[in-house]
């Protein structure tokens, strides 16, 4: 179906522009019947689609001022696609458990391929959260061998699949029996109950889902104005509690 030949055969040299548009980026076909005029007109049509792309990346170059909420510099917002590769990669690198008593729990971090997050960066943040003095305990990050659980950053689509039969609606995160499935959209954007404090929301979602992995179930708000227990479903409702991302919010930095 080469319209150029039809036009050329009809001898409509004046409509060469139309011919070029119809022909698109195709090269002149064999046969040598194409008149030189038509070929000449066809050439400018080729670079035309290439003009717009250089214009669009320009706004990205704008430097953003970091957002500070509750005294903390907030992570940069990232746009997360609904679906990524569907397969996980184990995040590279290892991390020692914090010092102190109690069992050392081995775990690994996975990141779905194709998500706009650096696997190592995500893993380091997870590790910091888990080993915080206010956190659940002592966690050693590994890349192989037996692990108690994994923390898996997942696209909304993969979250939906991983969390079945629980309905996550592309929004929630879950514990599915061996993975703390962290929905990358929420990781990127947070949750309304945490407002613009994305850093605290991230601490909450990791502590909460890993809490399930350690055998903890949901609890309610213990009283008006109290810190919400980490195992309360804080993204659904805070009731009369205040947001709190930590299992042990009152633990001092010095003591265990
Ligand atoms: Zn839960």
Automatic annotation (TrEMBL):
<dbReference type="InterPro" id="IPR022603">
    <property type="entry name" value="DUF3152"/>
</dbReference>
<protein>
    <recommendedName>
        <fullName>DUF3152 domain-containing protein</fullName>
    </recommendedName>
</protein>
<feature type="domain" description="DUF3152">
    <location>
        <begin position="79"/>
        <end position="239"/>
    </location>
</feature>
<dbReference type="Pfam" id="PF11350">
    <property type="entry name" value="DUF3152"/>
</dbReference>
<feature type="region of interest" description="Disordered">
    <location>
        <begin position="237"/>
        <end position="256"/>
    </location>
</feature>
């Amino acid at each position: 179906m080469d319209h150029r030949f039809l036009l050329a055969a009809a001898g409509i040299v004046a409509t060469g522009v139309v011919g070029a548009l119809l022909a698109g980026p195709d090269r002149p076909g064999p046969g040598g019947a194409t008149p030189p005029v038509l070929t000449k007109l066809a050439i400018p049509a080729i670079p035309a689609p290439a003009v717009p792309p250089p214009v669009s990346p320009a706004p990205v170059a704008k430097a953003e001022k970091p957002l500070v909420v509750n005294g903390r510099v907030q992570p940069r917002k990232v746009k997360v696609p609904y679906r990524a590769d569907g397969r996980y990669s184990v995040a590279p690198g290892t991390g020692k458990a914090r010092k102190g008593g109690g069992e050392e729990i081995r775990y690994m971090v996975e990141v779905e391929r194709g998500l706009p997050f650096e696997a190592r960066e995500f893993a380091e943040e997870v590790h910091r959260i888990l080993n915080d003095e206010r956190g659940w305990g002592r966690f050693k990050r590994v890349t192989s061998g037996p692990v108690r659980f994994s923390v898996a950053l997942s696209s909304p689509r993969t979250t939906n699949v991983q969390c079945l039969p629980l309905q996550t609606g592309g929004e929630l995160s879950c514990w599915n029996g061996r993975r703390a499935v962290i929905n990358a959209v929420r990781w990127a954007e947070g949750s309304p109950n945490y407002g613009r404090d994305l850093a605290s929301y991230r601490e909450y979602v990791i502590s909460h889902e890993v809490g399930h992995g350690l055998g903890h179930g949901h609890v309610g708000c213990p009283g008006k104005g109290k810190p919400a227990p980490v195992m309360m479903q804080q993204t659904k409702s805070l009731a009369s509690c205040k947001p709190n991302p930590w299992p042990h919010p009152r633990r001092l930095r010095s003591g265990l």
